[in-house]
Amino acid sequence: MENSATLRTWLDDMNLSHPLVIAGPCSAETEEQVLKIAHELKGTDVNYYRAGIWKPRTRPGNFEGVGALGLKWLQKVKEETGLKTATEVANKAHVELALEHDVDLLWIGARSTVSPFIIQEIADALHGTDKIVLVKNPVNPDLSLWLGGIERLYSSDIKNLGVIHRGFSTYEKSKYRNNPEWQLAIELQNKFPDLPLILDPSHITGKRDMIFDVSQTALDLNYDGLMIETHTDPDNAWSDAAQQVTPDSLKQIMRDLKIRKETDQEADYNNKLTNCRAQIDVIDNALIEMLGKRMKVSDQIGELKKQRNVAVLQSKRWNEILGNMVLEGDQVGLSEEFILRIFKAIHQESINHQQKIVQQ
Question: Which UniProt keywords apply (predicted)?
Fold first, then answer.
């Protein structure tokens, strides 16, 4: 993507006064449902109306979408509301049908992004298209895999490209449905600043009450837009009910979000400062999460020491840790004094945890 500056052209041409907004139901369920939601989103900040026609599901038996019939409903959305349309494609047949029904924006889902074969098939089917194509991050936090999918599409003369950050799967329990792993998206943004970056807070959070906060973090990090699942009756949605918001809730979210896209010099300074602070917030949250995990391991060690009647403080082991961390810290520009202060505090907290267990 040597001339990646061309990738932003489609977004710049829209000349938006607010971030790009893609909204609509997770799944197209019925014609009535699709049109009702669309009419409620008409005249709002929504730029593209999304609806899942084909729903990739890991386990068989779950609702997998209404299929090509739903594309006709999207055509009616465009006719009746003027909203541009968007849907997910996962193979050549999907692409051909979506193009036949004049869908304006196509995105490739996380399950598809992990497969070079699927991406190449889609890229070949889309060769030379002027449609907007967005690539969701792969299921696992692998930046090279994400970039590989984008490069395959770019090599097929698809210039109107962008990416969607929808979070990453993890075996560990988290407050998120899919961990955001913000640093990976920030790295992508730093490498390719002209590649439009859209956040999917619905799939990251899995909970509608978290969507606003995650969306605000994205805007503070200079994301270009949001994809938010929206349903008139989310509790009874046929898929992903917990993460969908009502059209009224979406409108309120759009009103409440602080959008920092001013162009004067002072505003540019404030925007950059806000972006840096947002990155620090992301890293600080990750530090707290990692420290919490470290203390859980300390608790396990405390249980083992209690069973064997072993002293909590093991000076030899502690000195080994401290020596290693001083060397590691030096490699990344951290002073010995700083490392000693930080790890002494961490060590003391670990001792406190273990003492509570041993004394029980």
Answer: Transferase
Give the contacts of 111 (CB within 8 A, at least 6 positions apart).
Answer: 56, 58, 90, 139
Q: Are 135 and 149 in contact (CB under 8 A)?
A: yes
b/e code 234-269 from CB counts within 10 Å (16+ = b): beebbbbeebbbbbebbbebbeebeebeeeeeeeee
21 has a pLDDT exceeding 90: yes
Question: Max alpha carbon distance in the chain (Å)?
Answer: 76
Q: Are 121 and 148 in contact (CB under 8 A)?
A: no
Which three-class secondary structure string do you get for the chain?
Answer: CCCHHHHHHHHHHHCCCCCEEEEECCECCCHHHHHHHHHHHCCCCCCEEECECCCCCCCCCCCCCCCCHHHHHHHHHHHHHCCEEEEECCCHHHHHHHHHCCCCEEEECHHHHCCHHHHHHHHHHCCCCCCEEEEECCCCCCHHHHHHHHHHHHHCCCCCEEEEECCECCCCCCCCCCECCHHHHHHHHHHCCCCCEEECHHHHHCCHHHHHHHHHHHHHCCCCEEEEEECCCHHHCCCCHHHCECHHHHHHHHHHCCCCCCCCHHHHHHHHHHHHHHHHHHHHHHHHHHHHHHHHHHHHHHHHHHHHCCCCCCHHHHHHHHHHHHHHHHHCCCCHHHHHHHHHHHHHHHHHHHHHHHCC
Question: How far is C-alpha 192 from the chain's CA centre?
Answer: 17
In the chain the domains, ranked by start, together with CATH numbers, are: 4-261 (3.20.20.70), 268-358 (1.20.59.10)
pLDDT tens string 274-328 = 888 888 888 888 899 889 999 999 899 888 888 888 888 788 888 888 888 889 9
Residues, the chain, total?
360
Averaged confidence pLDDT in the chain: 91
Both structure tokens of 18: 């607010």
Q: Describe the crossing of helices 211-220 and 265-308 by its angle, rounded to 10 degrees.
A: 120
